């Protein structure tokens, strides 16, 4: 499929607007802004020369409207399922949670990276069918960060997100707003995801050879969408811009760079600002990871700059002077990030990625800690304690591992002896620990667990006790057992 490049403007998702105010028992005596996010089927052109593509989206758009929140200003969202009764993508009914006795179309929204109570976190089994809605509350009591929201329904998350159920959720705070970073219309979300798109504009989702069990372990598209468009362009002024890169893909990781050797300055990762800006030629993002980057187009009037994913140009910036000037400069430091001390951890959990505990089970299944989703909870941190999780990757692939509720720091990655593990479940390191790179030294909520490595993270488990989840963010893995509940026990 050869399509003309850079003929459509980059879509900027609309800002979500409150539909009213409402009281909520979690915030006595307060009226909170109420948003309503209705999931609807709709059609849109992903490219000027393609017929319209049927999709699902929050607010009938893809990506959905951007939610803008301010730290410590709680808000309410009513998530409403107004989708059709039938799914348009291939459900695998042999997958746990997607059996034939369940409605085909089920949704539950999760704000990725938000610290919320269990009832508002979008627990995968708390899905609801078309015609139903649920009210969630978001305290926004956390640092400024680029979060995103997406579907999380048990056994069909990969299909619901692929269909278009995703959007950006941005939290601002005073500290960040005092830094003079590009703001307003110079601060834009750039949501990246790939899709398999046919000539007729239809979205395709790959299937296995077995019509009874169509699940596949990965889904890579033939087209990379930027805010829902193929090869868009954006007119910019000769000044600095802040782009919030979000990898919303099912499987693919992105290696982003700019043409002409222009560098990107990374200022934030998943959970907000880094301690200091990091100049980079290339920004790698695994599914669900975010990077806020500042690009400086000063002095480039009339020039075109392309954004590349590996060697392919996927988007173009066109610099045009409209007389506005950028007076800000990049601060040398952005915030203080206190490193969590490993000695403060009350526990080091050794958790395998991709182990089978039942030899007779499906060969394609990947599990966490050797356990299925439905096994009793084994990860049960106590509120306000610090834990280390050592994730032992037994597979040949990297898995982006995500914990709900908490932010964490990456301690290290360290090679280990797979044979020793398989023989006797003992962890034998075979080389020195590799410390995180500067852009991984900030707060994270998703971490790349490399093959052959133990990836160690440290987190303080603050929040409301109850049930949350942790999982691989390759959506095909997440849907097929690479997800486990965790229970936050009261202090
Ligand atoms: Cu981005 Cu459990 O989710
Ligand atoms: Cu995985």
TrEMBL record:
Q: In this protein, which residues make up the domain named Plastocyanin-like?
A: 107-175, 375-487
- InterPro entries, per database record: Cu-oxidase-like_N, Cu-oxidase_C, Cu-oxidase_fam, Cupredoxin
For this protein, the record's Pfam families field holds: Cu-oxidase_2, Cu-oxidase_3
Q: Which PANTHER family match?
A: BILIRUBIN OXIDASE, CUPREDOXIN SUPERFAMILY PROTEIN
Name the chain's protein: Multicopper oxidase domain-containing protein
Q: Which organism is it from?
A: Dyella kyungheensis
Source taxonomy: Bacteria, Pseudomonadati, Pseudomonadota, Gammaproteobacteria, Lysobacterales
